[in-house]
Structures are given as C-alpha cells and as structure tokens.
C-alpha cells in the first residue's frame, strides 16, 4: 500500500520507523511524541483496556480500529486525561504524564474531537472556536476580567485566529450562527476547527467520518493527510477505506487488547484481525 | 392614581433588588447546579462588614466597596473550600451544605455583631422626590438602587458576551468535560462564578439594607423572593431572572399596597407554586428542551 502525499522533512522517522506503533521499550524512539505503555483500565469488574501499548511519532497518522466495545474510546479517554489508567504509563515527549488532568494535557498540545461533537449550543460558532484557543490565551485571569488593553488586544488576536481556522475549513460564513441551527456536516467542521485552533501537536479524532457523505469523506481524508504536516493524528474510525488510505500505522484492539499492529496493508492480512472482524464488519 | 404610581415605583425598586438576588442564584445554578440558599446570610455578613466600616467613621462608599470585595472573597472561599469537596456526590449534598452554611453564618453574625436591629445608613435621601409640588414615592436611594443593579447587569453582560474569561465561564457551565478537554481550567471558572455571584448577592444585601434596619435574619425573606424570581425566569436564564425579579417586585408591591403587607410572603409562595404547576420551565423559557 502506497500513501500518496509526501511527508514533511520534519518527520522522516514517522513512516514505518521503529518506534511507530510499537510498544516502545526504551529511549530508542527519538521521534516519539506520545506513548502509552502497558495501560490497563478497569471499570468495576470489566477490563476495558488490558496492557495496551502504542506510540505516535510527530507527523504520523495512527489509526485505532477494532470491533465495537474493543476499548477504542476508552483509549482516547486515557490519552486526553479523562480516564486515569489503573496501571501503566503515559509519556508525552518522554515525560510521564499519567497523573496530569485533561486541561494540563490540552495545554501541552493534545487536542481532541468528540463523537458527539460537544459544541456549546448557546454560544456562536466563533465563540465555540475561541474557547478552543484557550491554550494560547496568555493574558492573566484578572486582566481578562477587567478587560485591560493587553487582554483586549489578545482577544482580538484570538478571534482573528479562530476566524482563520473557520475559513480554512470552509465554514467561516456560519461564524455568527448557533450550532443547533446548522447542518451536521457544518457542525462537524466547527468541532474540528475548535480542536485545530489550539494548534495541537497531537490531534485525537474520534470517528470523524461518521455521518458524512462519500464526497465529504474523501475531502476528510485529504484534510487529515494535510494536517499530518503540522501535527500527529490518532484516528478512531469505522470506515476502513478511510483508515487504510490515510494511516501510516494501524493498531487493532479487541476486548481491550492490542491484537495486531503495523502498516494498513500488514494489518489487513493479519488472521487475528480477520477473526475479530468476522461478522462485525459491515 | 397617586397610589398606583407609588405602588409601581416601590415595586420597581424592590424588583431591581430581587432581580439582582435572583441573578446571583441563577449564576450559581447554571455553573454548578446548586441552589445556594446561603446566598442570603453571605450577603448579610458582607453588609455587616460595610456597617462596621461605616460606623467606624469611614465613608459609606468605602464600606460599600469593602462589602462587595468581601463578597468576592467569601464566594470564592465557599466554593473552593466547602462546595468543591461535595461536587459530583449527588445533587442534594451541596444543597444541604448551603442550608447548613445558612445556619452557621446566622449564628456567626449573631455572635460577632449581635442579634439586635441596627440601622444602616443610606448615602442619598430616603424621602420621596418632589415632582411639581407632589412627593413621589421614589427616593434618591431608590434611584441609586435601580441604577446600581442596571450597571452591574450591564457589566455582567459585557463579561459573559465579550470577554475571553466570560466565554470560558459559559463553556464550563455548559459542559465542563468538553471545556476541560479544550484546556479550560474549569475549577477556576467555577470559583470565579461563585465569587461574582456573591458580589451580586452582596450588592442586593446592601441595597435592601440602605436606609433600613439590619439584623442577622434581614435577608432571609429575600432569598425566598429571589428564588421565586429565579424560578419565574426559568432558573437557567439570567435574562429570565432579571425579568422575573422585576415582575415579582411589582406583583408583591401591588399585593402589599392593595391587599395588605401581611400577605406578601404568601403571595410570593403562591406565585412559586403556580409557576411550578403551570409552566415549570419558567415564564420566559425560550428553549423547551431543558435537561430531562
């Protein structure tokens, strides 16, 4: 399987590099941006993740696939700090981050979109996106409250940045509308804009293709490839065509365990994957 | 005619205070889903702080500002120290906690300031203004009350609509989990929300007290009226709380003026029951689909 779009020089180790998708054991992965090692999560008696390890390099697109209930969403929740694992380690650029909270991880550069989008319904599209730019808000809390000139300047800059991202995603015309009044595809773009405006170094996309037409999905594939020039992407997705065409590496989960990993072509031919998907694939 | 005017003006002034108090309740309800019954004694306490400063010979305005600042601090401390630990541990826990705080603050005030009635000064005349030879039931302090409430509401609108901090506060109130994922320090926003609400509550306390008498329980009725006003407005809507406050002020003023002042509390509770029976989402609810 060949991937068409060229990667930037900044991430030569990304594609098929030794660290990619492998349970990085040592300091060998110089290009490692984010890694989970031996992560275990249990909810009551249910083991949602069982010794899961994976790593993402800068500029890499890592797909996470598996049947329903395999633990994909739990994996994302661990990665962004919503769920604290019972065991194992999380490393961000070599630093242990297991104990950090979601806003800390977001501040460090982990962005995420949600399956349910999670837009703020009573705020305009633009305001939604401005909140996403929080990590770039430098002016203090008090000066913001008192609307000091420094923070007014900053607020204007945040607004401009938010508009630029909405424009890039082709939904700038809806900036002053409220999310409930917009079509699903537009809201999806808004949710993506809200994640992108923070300029994350790692973007977690949770089922970005659900509810999109074939055309929109093709555009989404192109967009994800383009984003990988600027950031690493982790992708949970059911649409295999999309996963196979945009991912550098794929990790397959089943019952909370990693049952296969490798390039899309390698994973596709793996017997364990076929077995897990038998009957589960639509 | 004269009585109609008097009743209306009195109602508007009262309504402004109820609106402020209802707004304070709504701000906290929106962000933390707690009805803060302790809002009344918190405002009482800060009003006493103003009184102590004024009685020590300082200006009214120094006391006024000190009370608002004390409200800011008190609100933040209550949220951070008392409410935060019970957060997410069942809706009732926090409400019981605010009721407990209600009693504790009462006792503290009685111990520290005494439980007798003390008169609270007003910076403007508390006599009716004369218009064309007749005295109107609008006092200088009444005008100040309405202006102060309008100004504070205007500032809050500016904060929530047009500042980055305000956006983050709204995002935190709307869905804290999503806000956290976007890097918002939701805990701080909640603390700030309680602090600002307590300032608004303190303002209401000062405005009720001005030119009248204070004692540890002088705000207790106001928390009931404020709550009724907030429910009138839908509990979730700041604009509704303000409208509900003014409406309730007018209603109660008319009840007091035409039927008898002893019926005011009962009228407020009747309105509360009627609204909850007929239109539980509030008179001004624009969105029918509230959380179920």
Condensed summary:
Chain A is an alpha/beta fold. Helices cover 33% and strands 21% of the residues of chain A. Chain B contains 11 helices and 4 strands, in the order H-H-H-H-E-E-E-H-H-H-H-E-H-H-H.
Topology:
The complex is a heterodimer of chains A (282) and B (292).
Chain A: E1 34-43, E2 46-56, E3 61-65, H1 72-79, E4 87-92, E5 95-96, H2 102-108, E6 110-112, H3 125-132, H4 141-145, H5 149-168, H6 184-196, E7 202-206, H7 214-227, E8 232-236, H8 240-246, E9 249-254, E10 257-262, H9 264-268, H10 271-277
Parallel strand pairs in A: 3-8, 3-9, 6-7, 7-8
Antiparallel strand pairs in A: 1-2, 1-4, 4-5, 9-10
Helix pairs in contact in A: 3-5, 3-6
Chain B: H1 2-32, H2 39-55, H3 60-86, H4 91-113, E1 118-119, E2 128-131, E3 134-139, H5 140-162, H6 164-174, H7 176-181, H8 186-209, E4 213-214, H9 220-232, H10 238-259, H11 264-278
Structural key phrases:
heterodimer, A: 282 residues, alpha/beta, Rossmann fold, six-stranded mixed beta sheet, four-stranded antiparallel beta sheet, B: 292 residues, mainly alpha, two-stranded antiparallel sheet, two-stranded antiparallel ribbon, 5% strand, globular
Description:
The complex is a heterodimer of chains A (282) and B (292). Chain A is an alpha/beta fold and 282 residues long. Chain A has two domains: 19-109 and 200-282, 3-Layer(aba) Sandwich (Rossmann fold), CATH 3.40.50.300; 124-198, no CATH class. Chain A has helices spanning 72-79, 102-108, 125-132, 141-145, 149-168, 184-196, 214-227, 240-246, 264-268, 271-277, and strands at 34-43, 46-56, 61-65, 87-92, 95-96, 110-112, 202-206, 232-236, 249-254, 257-262. In chain A, the strands form two sheets. Chain A has a six-stranded mixed sheet with strand order 6-7-8-3-9-10, sandwiched between helices. Chain A has a four-stranded antiparallel sheet with strand order 2-1-4-5, with helices on one face. In chain A, helix 3 (125-132) runs parallel beside helix 6. Chain A is globular. Residues 1-29 of chain A have low confidence and may be disordered. Chain B is mostly helical and 292 residues long. Chain B has one domain (2-219). Chain B has helices at 2-32, 39-55, 60-86, 91-113, 140-162, 164-174, 176-181, 186-209, 220-232, 238-259, 264-278, and strands spanning 118-119, 128-131, 134-139, 213-214. In chain B, strand 2 (128-131) and strand 3 (134-139) form a beta hairpin. Mean pLDDT of chain B is 88; it is low at 287-292. Chain A binds chain B through residues 80-82, 101-103, 106-107, 112, 114, 118, 120-123, 127, 130-132, 134-135, 137, 139, 141, 144-145, 147, 151, 154-155, 158, 194, 198, and chain B through 158-159, 163-165, 167-168, 170-171, 174-175, 177-186, 188, 192.
């Amino acid at each position: 399987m060949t991937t068409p779009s060229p990667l930037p020089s900044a991430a030569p180790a990304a594609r098929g590099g030794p660290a990619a998708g492998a349970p990085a054991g040592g300091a060998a992965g110089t290009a490692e941006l984010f890694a989970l090692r031996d992560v275990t999560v249990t909810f009551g008696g249910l083991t949602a993740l069982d010794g899961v390890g994976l790593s993402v390099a800068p500029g890499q697109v890592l797909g996470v696939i598996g049947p329903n209930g395999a633990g994909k969403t739990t994996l994302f929740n661990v990665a962004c700090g919503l769920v604290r694992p019972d065991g194992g380690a999380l490393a961000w650029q070599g630093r242990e981050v297991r104990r950090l909270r979601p806003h800390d991880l977001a501040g460090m550069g982990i962005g995420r979109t949600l399956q349910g989008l999670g837009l703020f319904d009573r705020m305009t599209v633009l305001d939604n996106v401005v909140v996403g730019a929080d990590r770039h808000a430098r002016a203090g809390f008090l000066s913001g409250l008192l609307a000091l000139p420094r923070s007014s300047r900053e607020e204007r800059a945040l607004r401009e940045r938010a508009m630029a991202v909405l424009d890039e995603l082709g939904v700038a015309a809806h900036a002053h509308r409220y999310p409930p009044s917009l079509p699903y595809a537009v809201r999806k773009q808004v949710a993506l804009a809200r994640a992108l405006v923070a300029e994350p170094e790692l973007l977690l996309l949770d089922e970005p293709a659900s509810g999109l037409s074939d055309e929109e999905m093709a555009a989404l594939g192109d967009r994800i490839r383009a984003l990988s020039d600027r950031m690493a992407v982790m992708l949970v997705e059911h649409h295999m065509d999309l996963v196979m065409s945009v991912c550098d590496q794929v990790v397959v989960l089943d019952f909370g365990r990693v049952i296969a990993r490798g390039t899309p072509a390698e994973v596709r031919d793996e017997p364990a994957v076929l077995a897990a998907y038998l009957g589960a694939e639509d | 005619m004269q009585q109609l005017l008097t009743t209306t003006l009195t109602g508007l002034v009262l309504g402004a205070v109820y609106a402020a108090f209802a707004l304070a309740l709504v701000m906290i309800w929106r962000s933390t889903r707690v009805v803060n019954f302790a809002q009344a004694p918190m405002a009482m306490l800060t009003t006493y702080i103003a009184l102590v400063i004024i009685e020590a010979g300082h200006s009214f305005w120094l006391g006024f500002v000190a009370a608002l600042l004390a409200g800011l601090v008190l609100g933040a401390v209550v949220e951070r120290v008392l409410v935060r630990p019970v957060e997410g541990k069942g809706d009732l826990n926090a409400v019981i906690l605010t009721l407990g705080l209600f009693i504790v603050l009462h006792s503290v005030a009685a111990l520290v300031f005494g439980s007798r009635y003390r008169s609270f000064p007003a910076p403007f005349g508390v006599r009716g203004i004369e218009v064309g030879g007749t005295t109107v039931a609008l006092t200088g302090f009444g005008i100040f009350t309405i202006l102060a409430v309008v100004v504070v509401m205007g500032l809050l609108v500016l904060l929530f609509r047009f500042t980055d901090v305000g956006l983050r506060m709204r995002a935190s109130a709307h869905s804290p989990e999503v806000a956290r994922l976007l890097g918002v320090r939701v805990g701080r926003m909640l603390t700030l929300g309680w602090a600002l609400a307590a300032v608004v509550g303190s303002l209401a306390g000062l405005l009720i007290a001005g030119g009248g008498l204070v004692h540890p329980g002088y705000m207790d009725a106001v928390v009931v009226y404020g709550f009724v006003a907030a429910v009138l407005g839908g509990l979730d809507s700041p604009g509704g709380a303000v409208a509900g406050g003014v409406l309730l002020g007018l209603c109660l003023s008319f009840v007091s003026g035409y039927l008898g002042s002893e019926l005011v509390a009962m009228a407020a509770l009747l309105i509360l029951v009627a609204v909850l029976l007929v239109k539980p989402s509030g008179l001004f609810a624009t969105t029918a689909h509230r959380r179920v």
